[in-house]
Predict the 3D structure of the following.
Amino acid sequence: MAQIQVKLVRSVIDRPERQKRTVKSLGLGKMNSTVQHELNPAILGMVKSVQHLVQVTEL
C-alpha cells in the first residue's frame, strides 16, 4: 500500500479545537514535525480537513 508523509507547516494557534485535535490525531505536535502514514480513506479525510496547515508528499 502507498504511503504519504505529512508535515506540519503552519501553527495550530488560533485554530478551531477540531482542527487542533485532527492535527494531534495525525501524530503531529510541533511545527515542522513529520509523520508517515499508510494511504487510506481515514487518513485522507483528516489530511483534507487540515490541508491548509500541512504539506503532503507521496512516498
About this structure: The chain has a mean pLDDT of 96. The first strand starts at residue 3 and ends at 8. The first helix runs from residue 17 to 25. The chain is about 30% helix and 25% strand.
